[in-house]
């Protein structure tokens, strides 16, 4: 039983009388809050086991150290049982929790500030229906001086713009719904926007791609070289619903997001997000470079490795096999400014998420055991500069660093 199913069954049981009978308006508000929790993928950071949803403890590694997701069940000692709705509203809109404790940006209040008070009330109502779970969590695992929360006053001054979402009156209601979901509860920019030296979003580069540990959250602007400019709305919807489309198969953190969140979104919300992303005006300025020459030694060696190890699945032309093996040819994700995710899947292998529409996720084996750092760099350099692709060559030093980071 997955997290979403167990939470849904718990809600149904509560409404049926396991806790107390809910009047229809109250039930509707709680159900709306449950859906918002799914949209925000709250379980990702606030759960470590399906039988203990929202009880906290999930480790979030940042460039400054580790933080643990908080217990947000109604437990009075270790959760939010002593909070009021005003406490919750302030945490969501201002990044200040119960008792005036300032929250770190790993809790994406910089996005949640755009959520309406009405939506926060629904989310709060849902959280109150959860089973209280006693689970002490010391969220702040950061070393000195980053563990001093007073420093967050300066961080907020540099990186936080408080304020609810303001609709663009020049755009349609559907576009504005998509903008609200992406910029607010969906907090897509938390992963997909590059960060400055303090860990805040880089001004003017919203959704242009960002480093996420051992993964690269790709550019999802309308840029045609490195973003989703060539994707159709149908491509976007298929990817968010199933984890698979003509260009890509979700892997790593995105596979988890699809599995636990976006596959469960309402059809009209997925459509709204697709409309917004295709016409949002957020376009990175990455220009297409010239591909490496075919006689470059890295290209020659990389081609030989590709035809020996990769072409059986991805084909000699890089076309892949629809919905099974990703297309490599003319693929913006292959041309990403950072090849981190490509190195990761070659070294560690990958398995796509399991969704209702596609319960068996495609998989790729690990090649760390039989390709050295230079060989991995060469084959990826070849892929990134063939079949309509053009991107910077991969540095074997980057392969070596990630290989070390991926070791248990």
TrEMBL record:
Residue ranges of the TM segments: none
Localization, UniProt: Cell membrane
Any one GO CC term of the record: plasma membrane
Entry binding sites for heme c 3: 310, 313-314
Taxonomic classification: Bacteria, Pseudomonadati, Pseudomonadota, Gammaproteobacteria, Enterobacterales
Binding site for heme c 2: 188, 191-192
PROSITE patterns listed in its UniProt record: CYTC
Source species of the chain: Biostraticola tofi
Start and end residues of each Cytochrome c domain: 28-131, 173-281, 297-387
Needed cofactors: heme c
Cross-referenced InterPro entries: Cyt_c-like_dom, Cyt_c-like_dom_sf, Cytochrome_c-type_DH, Membr-bd_ADH_cyt_c
Keywords of this entry: Cell membrane, Heme, Iron, Membrane, Metal-binding, Repeat, Signal
Protein's UniProt name: Mono/diheme cytochrome c family protein
Signal peptide range in chain numbering: 1-23
SUPFAM superfamilies linked: Cytochrome c
Positions with a binding annotation for heme c 1: 42, 45-46
